[in-house]
Amino acid sequence: MIERTRSGSASFGMSEVAVLSQSDLLRRMSSDLAMLPSHLAKIIQTAPLRYKLFEIPKKSGGMREVAQPAREVKAIQRWIIQELGPSLPVHGCAMAYREGTSIRQNAEAHATSRFMLKLDFTNFFPSILRSDLQLHLDRHCANNLDLSARKLVAHVCCWARRRQPPLRLCIGAPSSPLLSNSVMFNFDSQLAALCAQDGVVYTRYADDITISSRERGKIDRYEAIVNSVVSDLQYPRLTLNEKKTVRASRAGKRVVTGLVLTPDGAVSIGRDRKRLIRAMYHRSLTHELSEKEAQELSGLLAFADSIEPGFSNRLRRAVKP
């Protein structure tokens, strides 16, 4: 069970100013980003409107709405996250968007378990509102940012979807990964503590929750437990997507963040991906791949090696030209 947390002192020049105001942030930001203060202030004021909206296909079918902030807004958000990051707590069970974690490590945490419950939040990022960020910053950053500065941070990191309130996190913003992880700190802490008491393993990869156990029956009540923890949170207001709830055991296929857990406790890319890679590799030997397909094969081989080290070498030895 992973229980460690990350939290530290802010890097907003604490040796110079104990509590920074909005004007302090603007002055530092203007200097670091080489932007005129008047231009910077205008961008920040209109930041939630400066997003480009587009759609991408979902794996399950249909289209997913995605938005990205304008270049200037991205630069401001990256600056804020670089400065703010050390003061925001992130629980050790949060496996996404953190240095040193990966989908492989997330899957490995459950590899030796026999029984598994997978849960998914509905519209995770858009469900986190500016008001949630404000409450979170008030709780964790009041010692180094005054109210005006905290309001600026919450405002500039949110998106006005279709130019309508409420302001919310956007999956395409560079500030959203850290902020979403940190906003979930109370949820992660409560659920991790309950799981630890029961000897159950818990990890969360963005909106994907995985709970597993070696003992039959231990995770049976955890869907109700997660719903209870969610409903008791002061923020954010989240709901589970019941259509994506999965219960699995070693008697069937167990998949965690797209990776397959094998009966012997290993993590694999899965048979389907291996078949695809082998087929593409055979075609590459006869020069049948387009340039785009060759690039795709290169990416697939790198991915396979990151999950199953040595996969590409084994493939080349097995398939000689």
Protein model, in words:
This protein is α+β, with helices and mostly antiparallel strands. It is built from 12 helices and 11 strands. Helix 10 crosses helix 11. The N terminus is likely disordered.
Structural class: alpha+beta
Radius of gyration: 22 Å
What percent of residues adopt helix (DSSP H or I)? 40-55%
Q: Can you list the strand order of the major beta sheet?
A: 6-7-5-8
- How many beta-strand elements? 11
Order of helices and strands: EHHEEHEHEHHHHEEHEEEEHHH
Would you identify the regions where 5 or more consecutive residues have pLDDT less than 50? Answer: 1-10
- Average of pLDDT: 92
First-last Cα distance: 46 Å
Biggest sheet details: 4 strands, antiparallel
Q: What is the overall shape?
A: globular
Count every helix, treating DSSP H or I runs of 4 or more residues as helices. Answer: 12
> What amount of the residues lies in strands?
5-15%
Give me a quick take on this structure.
The chain has twelve helices and eleven strands. It has helices spanning 22-33, 37-45, 71-84, 103-108, 130-140, 147-156, 176-183, 185-198, 222-232, 271-285, 291-307, 311-318, and strands at residues 5-6, 51-57, 63-69, 90-91, 115-120, 201-205, 208-213, 246-249, 254-256, 259-261, 267-268.
Topology:
Blueprint: E1 5-6, H1 22-33, H2 37-45, E2 51-57, E3 63-69, H3 71-84, E4 90-91, H4 103-108, E5 115-120, H5 130-140, H6 147-156, H7 176-183, H8 185-198, E6 201-205, E7 208-213, H9 222-232, E8 246-249, E9 254-256, E10 259-261, E11 267-268, H10 271-285, H11 291-307, H12 311-318
Antiparallel strand pairs: 1-4, 2-3, 5-7, 5-8, 6-7, 9-10, 10-11
Helix pairs in contact: 1-6, 5-6, 10-11
